[in-house]
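Entry 12.
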Amino acid sequence: MKNKYYVFLCIVVSLVGGCHRKSDKDMAGGTPSVNVAVVTTDSVVLHKDYPGTLKAAQRADVVGEVSGRLLSKNYTSGAYVHKGQVLFTIESTKYRDALTQAQASLTTAEGQRDFYSCQSAAMKKAYDEEAVSKMELLQSQTSLRSAEASIRNARAAIESAQTMLSKCTVRAPISGYITDSEMSVGNYVNGEGNPQVLATIYDNAQLNAVFSIEDDQYRKLLGGADANAKGTSTPLYSSMPLKFATPPAHTYTADLYYVAPTVSNTTGSLQLQGKVRNIDNELRDGMYVTISLPYDTEPHAVIVKDAALSTDQLGKYLYVVNDSDKVVYTPVTTGPLYQDSLRVITKGVKPGQKYVTEALLTVRNGMKVKPVIK
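Predicted 3D structure (tokens):
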């Protein structure tokens, strides 16, 4: 019995000793260290983002200006085409016949002109010899002038017929990327009275970022300067950052050149355009874009690392470490991004305060920590 009691006592002592040693291990860790940074200030140019769209600097419709069956489509949809390249052919029989008729009319008019020219010369000689009346001379001269007018009309008809015949071969008006055909081969193009769009070409080498800005914000943007004073050759602002929903491989900026001369009565805004160089043909007409424009300068803006910010249902917040080295959940109001990795804070923290920058998921409000400034 004594042996059993001794074994039981050893087990209890062993368990108690084990628990005691685990507690000592936990205590050995002490207060956890966390990396923190100090809230700073800097002079920041404030920007505001405006949504807009990209428009091709050059865009042209390929139109059928004659009437007839569409005989062929001579390009691959979406391909790059060159100015003057043959894109479509339209039935030309009607216009070839018109050209032949005009050429025949010219031949007839030239024959009449030759006849009346000889007749007029003979009448003039006879009139000088008093063999014919003045009325007969005037009639011959009138017939000659009429024949000469018929020649001019016939030549104009030939030129018109040649022009219409040439339009049966539809060529690219500009170089660029072309859309699919609006009509299938075999359909009837009724373009003589009202030109019919067959496709559209977009020259995407340079695009315009088109957006609108509030009337009052416009004056802040210019700083009181006259937008028209610089003219169209000098940008109002250069290298304005562009943002996309899905960032492309390259970084894009716009040079702001154009400001609309009027303000919209319905929106109270005016349109602006910035020129964008399309690197490697990544951008397309119609893409949505956001442009960031400067409007003011904050000489003492409060700055924190953007990666240190977290978000919950109440908004943005920081984990601030107070003078007692305790973590304090601190809601903040954020401003614009600064130098890609910093964020302007308009409300919530002050310069000199410390805030947690790493391992944000391991800290909690009220937690005692050992701050390490990095």
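Annotation: The two ends are 65 Å apart (CA to CA). The longest strand covers residues 40-64.
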